[in-house]
Each structure stands twice: as structure tokens, then as C-alpha cells.
Amino acid sequence: TLLGKHPLHTTTHDLLALRLEIDATPLQRGKLLDQAATNFQKTAPEMRVQFGAWLNQLREFDRTLQALPAAEALKRKDYFMVHLDALAALNRWADLLKLLESSQTPLEAAYTWAFRARCHSKLNNQSLADLAWRDALRAAEGNPEQLQWLAIYAEKCDQPDTARKALRLLISRLENPRNVFRELTRLTERFGTTIELRDLLAEMVRRWPREPALQNDFAYLNLLLNTELAASCQTAETLSNQFPESLPFGTTFALALYRQKDFTGALRVYANRAIEWPRALPSQRAVYAAVLAANGHTDEARRLRQDLRLEQLRAEEDDLLAAIR
Asked: What is the pTM of this model?
């Protein structure tokens, strides 16, 4: 094709041209791929890796294993990763594990242990998987880049506790861990309890005491848990007065008044506000519904509650709506 013959063409262009040719002549797919495999065997390692990754994208995993065989993959990290991806896609977990247990594995220990953990899980060896995740954490402990990768990979493998532990270790290695705390907050919101999330927010407030959003979230969670009411109510009132247009701050203040059984005052927080409730967060709608119910507006509260799914709410938020369930 013209694309493949252009003087400035790269491997990417060659593979794109090959893909277009395969799409145009699907009956020739096998022949075209065989010829490409022969051609790429003679190219530089970087081009062979790109070809292997491209074959994986086409779901030609067996061809990938032929293009980058195990004997060669064990000598280069980039070959090895593409080879592993193909084995995983084929669900050849026992073969993959055997490869990872080789003394020649060209990977750092943290990656090797993490991949071994996944293999053990797929092979229903959960106790061995747990040990491998622990070893992965230990191996990555002093390396921020590996810890960041391990947190992402562990979450993808449905191992949120390992992901959170990796982020905890990463926090201790960074001068400014704010982004890591943000990621840890997301994981805790998704997998943790309200108490765990509240304790994490308490830690963040101690680190960044002047951030209103953190103060508000910490107060809100304490109010949900019905604890530290005096301090949380004071924080909620102060922030609501400082930011009268803020729905998040107003929600926390309304919940504070609700906890104090000042239901009329809680409803007054929402007065003269143009709020598009369908676009509000589920937690904000839950608090408003609870306030409406407490003021006798049961039908309106129930209509608001009908649009909320249980999985959108924390247990404590759902408890606020017990009277209208």
C-alpha cells in the first residue's frame, strides 16, 4: 500500500497498513499474518515487541507466543510482558505460573510476585495468592513507582486491601502525598466502611487543616455516624455561613440541625435555593429526603427516595430514610 511505501513510514504505519489489508481481504488473514511473522523475525527487538503487542490486540495470542517464544521472552522484559499477556488471555495460568517461577524471570520482584498472586487466584490457590500479594508489597516497599503500579494492578485483580496497603506505603515515601490520599479516599469510599473513611478524613484534616472541603467531609461523616456532634455541628454551621451557595456545605449543615432535632431549621437551609435535585449527589438527596420527612413532607420525600438505589448510599444514609421506606 501507499502507506507502507511512504519514506517516513514507521512500524506503526506498517501494522496499520497490514490491518487494512486484512480487513479488505479477510480470507487472506492467515497468509498475511504468517508472512508478517516471518518478516518481523528479522527486525530489531523493539519492532518485534510492537508486532507482538499488535497481535495481542488482534487476539492472535498463539501467534504472539510463536513470535516471542518463551526462551527469548525470558531474556528481555519487554518480550516477557507481551508473552505473559498472551498466556493470560488464553487462560493458561499454570503455564504462566511456571514461567514466573523460573529463576531467569527478567522482572523485578514486585511485578513477579504480583503476577504470581494473580495466577494462584485463577488456579484457586487463595492462600498462596495471599502470600504472593504480601511478598509483592514487601518487594515494592522502597520503590514509589512499583507501589503506584501495584496499587493499580491489585485493584484490577479485585484486591482492594492490597491496593490500599500499597498506597499507604507510597504515602510514607512521598513529600507531598495529596494525590495518593485522593486515590486512597476513592478506594475507601468504594470498598471501606464509613468509619474507615471518617478516620482517613481525620488524618487528612490533620495534614491540611485549612481546606474547607476536607473539614466539611469529615464533619459530614461524623454526623452520619452520630458522633462528635458538637464539633461537627460547629464546623458545619461555620462553613455554611462562609459558603452559603454551596450545596455540599449546606447538606452537612442540614444534617447537623437534623441530628439536633431542629427539623424546621434543617429545612430552612434549603430555602431560596435553586437546586436541580436530579443532578445532586445521592447523599445530598438522601439528607434532603430525611429532612422533608421529618417536617411532614412525606410524599415529596418518598418521591425523592424512589430515585435512589441502595448501592448508591452508605448504610448510615439509608438509615436516615427508614421512616419513609
From this structure: 0.86
